[in-house]
Amino acid sequence: MNSLPKAASTCDRKRLLLLTPPLLQTNTPYPATMHLTGFLRARGIDVQQRDLSIKVVRDILLAYGNETTDELLEFLGGPAPLEEKRAASEIIDDLARGIRDGVDSEFGFSRYAEHLCQAVEDFGELERRVRRRGILDVPLERHLKAAMDEVKPDLVGVACPFPGTLVGAFKIARYVKRRYPGVRLLLGGGYVSTELREMTDTRPLRYFDRFLFDEGYAPLLREAAGLADDAPVDVPPFVAPCYDGIDWDDYFDVVETDNYVTNLWNSGKWVKLVMARGCYWHRCAFCDVRLPYIGCFQMPEATAVADTLEAFARQGLRRFHFVDEAMPPALVRAVCDEILRRGLEVEWWGNVRFDAAFTPALAKKMARAGCICVTGGLECANDRLLALMNKGITLASAEKVLRAFQAAEIFVHAYLMYDFPTETKAEQRAAERYVKGLAKKGLIQSCFWHRFALTVHSPIAREPEKFGIVIEKAKRRRVFARNELAFAYAAARGRGDGCRGWQGIML
Ligand code: B12
Ligand code: SF4
């Protein structure tokens, strides 16, 4: 265990409370505060965490449900066949729809006011939504007050991973600022790191004292230990999360389809780990490779990962989701060797690139070590576009990898993309046919088509002309969020104008 850097004296130390705001997926805890707590506790910081999202969603469903709702949530939180859970989920889903139609149109189960928050043009609009009382307020304030009164923090750190947690995060800040003056409020997380880097609007500072980008380990340690902003902090390449303060019994599945693989995100209690930080490839033209969480690659020793798997397995937690950008094949091999050597009985899945290094032998080893599924990008499923976007794979090389996973009986979910610059309608149709063919051959079990989004941190945004597009200039005076960029084609496309009406398709 590392101790605090010498500069910190005990009187400078602050008590920290880390909060997950509503609303997020209900099946398993979102892992940001757990990772931060794990790191900070190991350095002697007095830190507590609470997942307010799950508490709030449960209270809402119980308040608007009937006498069977509690039982239903308990059933969805336990082990049961998928079909039975799907039927139970439909009842909960109807309840959520009723709440949305009759009480608060922003309530979206695992997201709140996401439509507004996906591209916040003007902070004023967000602020109005934060001030307006809705379905979140009463339960949120109840659980927030309980946490504040119990922990009595000097510092409150709020995690904001997605747009659907933004209103909840600001509601937390508003309440704390009014009721607990003197408590310092910090906001961080994936949404903040991605969308708020260019913020010039000062109104958000009425809510949070600081907006912190990228990994929270060093900045939070400095804040809590009273260290200077440039004090060196050693962060190991692998951080073991700490789930203290999290009640696993609160979480429940929402099963939306009969597809086992598609359901992995919304069902099951998974301990989420980050095997390697950043992406070892970090070259795809559409990806946010300029952000450190993708661009700065760091790989730990396999033993560090396996020690954590072993420690959780000892507590009876044996199911893991590696939320990496792309698990590096060399590390995966070494972690598998450790799992097998230690005889760990674990089950896990995670994101990969369909990299030729995933050979049939490695895929078999992964399956023996407990890997049940991999997710990875086939993007536009077209060789011309894969080369243009610098994906580093071809359809033939990817298919070889898919065959290796198939032979090892590891399921595959593919991420796909449409409306990539220069993509023609004919290419889109061919891609759809190709992907359906993969499914028919049993090479993928699930997939999802996302619309291409041009983001400010991607290589395309730096060289739009290479992709035949022109980026539209932002007109705002005061910037709050900036991420997705509007663009136009540099010349009439002639080859088809994309397929705007496509919906996400799951197999
Ligand atoms: C796995 C994942 C998913 C999964 C699982 C989600 C879940 N509920 O668990 C799925 C596929 C379902 C998903 C869905 C979506 N996702 Co996603 N997802 C991720 C991914 C790859 C990993 C998340 C994770 O678990 N990270 C591990 C934890 C430990 O890291 P972390 O949360 O970032 O926390 C660290 C720092 O951010 C910071 N930090 C966190 N909190 C705090 C708080 C304070 C005070 C401080 C100082 C620091 C700090 O310190 C932590 C440790 O370093 C990230 C990218 C990434 N690598 O983070 C995208 C990401 C979070 N997703 C993103 C998006 C956009 C979405 C969707 C909205 C996509 C969509 N259009 O549907 C949905 C929203 C889902 C929802 N419920 O609202 C964006 C969010 C950025 C943004 N623009 O808002 C990210 C960053 C990817 C990206 N750049 O596009 N996602
Ligand atoms: S898209 Fe995936 S493989 Fe490509 S750079 Fe981003 S994280 Fe890495």
Task: Note down, in words, how this protein is organized.
With 507 residues, the protein is of the alpha/beta class. The chain has two domains: 10-225, Cobalamin-binding domain (Rossmann fold, 3-Layer(aba) Sandwich), CATH 3.40.50; 270-489, TIM Barrel, CATH 3.20.20. 37% of the residues lie in helices and 12% in strands. It has 18 helices and 13 strands. The strands form three sheets. It has a six-stranded parallel β-sheet. It has a five-stranded parallel β-sheet with strand order 2-1-3-4-5, sandwiched between helices. The protein has a two-stranded antiparallel ribbon with strand order 12-13. Helix 13 (329-342) links the parallel strand 7 (319-322) and strand 8. Helix 7 (137-151) packs across helix 8. The radius of gyration is 23 Å and the shape is globular. The model is unreliable at 1-8 and 494-505 (pLDDT under 50). The structure holds cobalamin and iron/sulfur cluster. The site of cobalamin (B12) has 39 residues, from helix 1, strand 3, strand 4, helix 9 and helix 10. Iron/sulfur cluster binds at residues 279, 281-284, 287, 289, 294, 325-326, 353, 377.
